[in-house]
Amino acid sequence: MLAHRPHPEEGFRTCLGILRLYRGIDPARAEAVSARAVEIGALTYKSIVSIITHKLDKKNSVEDGWTPAQTHALGRPADQPAKILVGRPEGAAVAASLARSAL
User: Fold this and answer.
1) Within a 10 A sphere around the Cβ of 22, how many other Cβ atoms?
2) Could you state, in order of their start, the residue ranges of all structural domains in the chain?
3) What is the mean pLDDT of residues 63-77?
């Protein structure tokens, strides 16, 4: 976490905040929350809060066979069109090329 920040002090403050969050929970759950955060790449204070609040440490792990939805080059699920392209002349060409690449 320290390496992902432009200044080490920022990462240190994030770590302190996360440790403060872990004060009120069971050590085993804190480990599960940390493992889940690393697994999904959510290494921010807000992400850890979300994992704890929504009890995401107990749901859908990669080890349990869970895989994220298939996405295309723009990071959206393949069945959701890009709203930005709707109504633009180049939208049809881009949508067609994305559809070909998804096959």
Assistant:
1) 17
2) 2-64, 69-103
3) 55
